[in-house]
Amino acid sequence: MNSVGSGTDLDPVILPAIPPAHLRSGQIAALQVTDRLQRGSQIIGRFETSGLAGFKVAAQGRPLRVRMSLSLDEHSVSGWHNGVTEAASSLPRLVQIRSQGRLRQCVLLRGRRPHAQVAFDLSADEIPDDGLICVEALDIMEGDGISPEVRELVRDRIMPDGVAGLRFDKIVFEEPPAADFDTDQLDGCRCELYSLISAGGLANLSRQGTRQLRSNLFVVNPALRHTFGSSGYLTFRLGTKAEPAAVIPATWRRINSELRWLRHATRKLVRAAAPHVEQVLSIRDGDLGVPEQRPQGNVTELEVRSPARSPLLVLLTPVPGVVPTLEYGTVSDRPSGTRPSELR
């Protein structure tokens, strides 16, 4: 029997995933490492709590684009893996997605069966010679490199142990394309579909139009290079809508809900229903100061610099009976209202 080092010719040969690789099962040899992830057959697996998956990929010295699909279902509760379950929380989950030790994007998930998309690029020097690419899903309260200010502000706004039961549906490894689609505006739903923002996840991935922001917060993620939102300035147009009577607590009399709807309708009629951005924070660095926002009648335009190294967290001032909305986002190479001469 021949041997090389500690291996023998009886050791199984591990076949790496060869890009472009679309992986949808946890039973493949390329999934080399798992930590608190239970493998699936029709999905990559389900996280018991904050955990990790490591994939062997034949990158061959090339950069790679990584795209992930995550979701929640009725099994996405704490203790599902050992039968000691807890009631599902109505609070949203805020999850960090890290790879090769670095924070890449954040995902906010809420509601019934929401799906979230994650996308980031790995440079060639971030991929080791053995091709092992590690992806972590961590609750926002865990790990290092997260602003203590962010954690304090979201502590009562999000569900503890937000990774519990999270489905890891699919992962794709591919070479970054030479160019991507060119547009200067995306509606609210497509901003989330393309992972530029995360506002609770989409139940219908083909939906377009306005995105409701029921948690009164959303994440702005670093975008892929040469895609919408990857550089310059982002302007988000925010509006409001009256909360339907069906979702207002049953202890309220119906007349109260109708009065709230009428009050909101009146504010819209007099063009005074614009939402207010309470704070914008870098997930890594904390408060970014007074946000650049421009109320215009019933809408507010929020302007931020495209995040490069850390996702941004946007907090909106809650208004009872009113749901804030994201109508669309636009991108420009300089702040709105700035003349080219002012940039010299």
What would the keywords be for this entry?
single chain, 344 residues, mainly beta, Jelly Rolls, 2 domains, six-stranded antiparallel β-sheet, 3 helices, disordered N terminus
Average pLDDT, rounded to a whole number, is 88
Helicity level, as a percent range?
under 10%
H/E element order: EEEEEEEEEEHEEHEEEEHEEEEEE
Protein structure class: mainly beta
What share of residues are in beta strands? 35-45%
Rg over alpha carbons: 22 Å
Number of helices: 3
Shape: globular
Low-confidence stretches: 1-6, 339-344
First and last CA, distance: 72 Å
Count of domains: 2
Report the biggest beta sheet as strand number plus sense, adding barrel if it closes: 9 strands, antiparallel
Topology at a glance:
Blueprint: E1 3-4, E2 7-8, E3 21-23, E4 31-39, E5 45-56, E6 64-71, E7 93-99, E8 102-109, E9 115-122, E10 132-139, H1 148-154, E11 167-174, E12 185-187, H2 188-193, E13 197-198, E14 211-212, E15 217-220, E16 233-242, H3 254-269, E17 277-282, E18 286-287, E19 292-296, E20 299-305, E21 312-316, E22 322-332
